[in-house]
Amino acid sequence: MIAPPAQTPSSQVQAQQEESASALRIRVAAIFAEHRSRLIPTHSKEARAARLYPMLYVGFALPVILVLCFVSLPCFVPDEANHLLRADQVSCGEVIGESAQGAEAGGQVDSGLLRLANGFSRLRNRWKARYTGAAHPPARISLREFQSLETIQWSGSAKWAGFGNTAIYPPTSYLPQAAGLWMGARFGLSVLHTIFLARLLTALCAMALGCWAIAICGSGRLLLAVVLLLPQTLYLYASMSQDAMLIAYTLCGLALVSRAVTESRLLSSSELPLALCFFLMCAAARPPLLLLSAVLLLPPLCLRRTRRETLRTLGCLALLAAVTLAWSWRAKHLGPLTTWNGGNPPAQVIYVQHHLSQVPGIALHTIKADWGKLLFSMIGCFGYLDTFLPGMAYPLFLELLVAAVLLDSRRRRVRPALALLVVASVAGVVAVMYALEYLIATPPGGGHALGMQGRYLLPLLPALGLLGVVLPRPREWGRPALVLVLAGIVDLRLPLILASEFYHQSLWGVLQMIW
Q1: How far apart are the first and last CA of the chain?
Q2: Integer Cα distance of 185 and 99 in angstroms
Q3: In 10 A of CB 421, how many CB atoms?
Q4: Do the beta carbons of residue 74 and residue 123 sit within 8 Å?
Q5: Which of 12, 78, 104, 105 has a CA 20 to 30 Å removed from the CA of 58?
Q6: Which residues contact 399 (CB under 8 A, 6 or more apart)?
Q7: Are 167 and 334 in contact (CB under 8 A)?
Q8: What residue segments make up the domains of the chain, in order of their start?
């Protein structure tokens, strides 16, 4: 019998290396499959909703947003002119705004961009003049005015501009806007067409994050999708405002928490840092949202792991708060605080200190005076906050939001008292927002807070979807998708409404004028 040839040392080493490589590939595939099963639902109904809801969202939102990117007049979204200047600053590599002695913070921006922003700001002021009663030119933009602004080119020379209310924001909320401005300037596009490009990139990035959030979300998936289909959300996505990315970041963080709570498990080693990053980017841009990150405590509390896991989450929240406060402290020293409506924070603080007994009355009066306006502006309020949807659209969207919470409930064995954590975090964010508005946007001694806008509530609404884990599941499943269909059908009218309000031409004529 012939013996097999003996293996040489080199062949033995090669065989061992192949076995090690094969074992490594198997291990990597197992890890990928484990994380994929956690980030993407695998149950039949969950998988069906995870595929259907993003498809419905994209099918209705994408055409509306693509048209709005061009039809919506630049600088007509709240504070969009200053967001535009801040995005240009970020595109030049400036992480934070520059301070100016005795003046509001700002920075160096392209003079051509500044000229276009001032041109559209004049149009917006003319729009505002409709309410003064004095003689003024027509509010709608004409073809000649549009063509004069369309010819403005990038100058290549920098000029100082003040934009104190946006210079303090972190660059993470302006990444797609800055990328669009940078590409447009390098490719030789006009300033106006560059803004359109930046809007498109912002909308696509925000929509991509929104689709991912819908796909991975557990309880509250339907509510999250309805919030993304609100006309106000679509209007902000098709703009240069930081609210577009801010809403997307918040929804992604809430979706990760919702998935873990629904599956009765902790956030994985990859999900927890990701959720922290999303909440950090939100809190740095809008500090009251720091309170919303308290929902990260839900997974360990639901599993009654109140020691090691809860302490680890509390440590993460402490780090999140430290970074947020450090950024806010740095931004505070850029310049004087931006105020409006005659606000005077030092005088307002003195008034509150001497009239503490009136604070509950001020809060009740604010709720009574603001709740209707807040709901309207949360669903859709455009232009100079004076352009609205058809009257029946508002009660319809309110009913769709309530139906989304009830139809997407999935009761788990969790303590109902944990719902108080969700409610308290959302209520805390709203209370801090109102307190800040009372300081900086309300005259000293005002009877109720001014300046609160419904768009501030959009990142908070999906958090209420976490309440679905303590609500009973409805008997029927499969009809919730009709909620998204109804919302999408109403959204299709939004470009027509804005075109008829802003321009003399029809929607098709506006698109032909732009291109």
Answers
A1: 85
A2: 26
A3: 16
A4: no
A5: 78
A6: none
A7: yes
A8: 46-130+138-514
